[in-house]
Amino acid sequence: MLIGVPKEVKNHEYRVGLVPASVRELSHHGHSIMVETGAGSGIGVADADYEAAGARIVASQDEVFAEADMVVKVKEPQPFECKKLREGQILFTYLHLAPDPEQTRLLQKSGCIAIAYETVTDDHGGLPLLAPMSEVAGKMAPQAGAHCLEKAQGGRGMLMGGVPGVEPAKVLVIGGGVSGMNAARVAVGMGADVTILERSVPRLRYLDDLFEGRAKTLYSTVDAVERLSRESDLVIGAVLVPGAAAPKLITRPMLAEMATGSVVVDIAIDQGGCLETSRATTHAEPTFVEEDVIHYCVANMPGAVARTSTFALNNATLPFTLALADKGFRVALADDRHLRQGLNVHTGKITYKAVAEALELDYLPAEEALAISY
Known about the structure:
Layout: E1 2-5, H1 20-28, E2 32-36, H2 47-53, E3 56-58, H3 61-67, E4 70-72, H4 79-82, E5 90-93, H5 101-110, E6 113-116, H6 131-148, E7 170-174, H7 178-189, E8 193-198, H8 201-211, E9 216-219, H9 222-231, E10 234-237, H10 252-256, E11 263-266, E12 287-290, E13 293-296, H11 306-327, H12 329-335, H13 337-340, E14 343-346, E15 349-350, H14 353-359, H15 366-373
Parallel strand pairs: 1-2, 1-4, 2-3, 4-5, 5-6, 7-8, 7-10, 8-9, 10-11, 11-13
Antiparallel strand pairs: 6-14, 12-13, 14-15
Helix pairs in contact: 1-2, 6-7, 11-12
């Protein structure tokens, strides 16, 4: 199979779909890889490194999309990239379609086979290709929030850990999954007063054991979100419904009750955000203010630590990339129910139920779509 790796084009996105070690592994399996020139420059990987691993360097993104049987990316394709996809071409990347009707429509129109990292599952009920970036975003969130709390950034002028005689910042983490757990871990390490809200009782028990009293755990209700957000200096939204739009847990009236200069970091922004007031921002302009509260809603947070993020992502995606290349998408998806969960769009049909429901589109189960394709 001919696999193409374009350079990412989203604002301040420096990650890349394949690293040289992944290219070498794919080459070892007999596949050909083409990489757009400069694709790895943001993580310190030169074209020569890709060539040494067996890749062919091409001059433009157009060549990648025109020739490749499978395009491997990191971020969702931008509208002009979607228009370069063709019928039957495999796209393997993050998609986050539920809050993005335009991308969904363009992917349908292209006729491509769009497989989303974020909906691939595992035997433990986890999302193995989302988890590495959730971990990164979670660890970054308290850093971003602490910076925004500084007075020069418009914040309350609070130090996360306080000092002797002065209380630390109060941090509320909504959601105790991978991103929420890691956000809480870093916030605790910074000395903040941390509370985690979560709806899974077994997960609450796990988090309570993990933090051993260094972070409080509470069952998440509307009342708890309203009361604790009002009392918090920094709120980190880390909720996730796989493949679906994030629930709006903090409404504008709730936000208006927060102190002037408080901060919210919405990790869930890729899925539309968990605040009524959230809208996606970029690393170039990461924040905005609503109801006197600073919002940090960067949709590709891990792109800021691109080298760490890229290698972590490749560790998780490579086995699936190999399966798609070695077997072809039909057999690979038929053989692996977890990879099959990643199929979001198949030749114009929406094959992930949560996406179809969020966008009010017709849904065709992946199994039926694959049967049609045989």
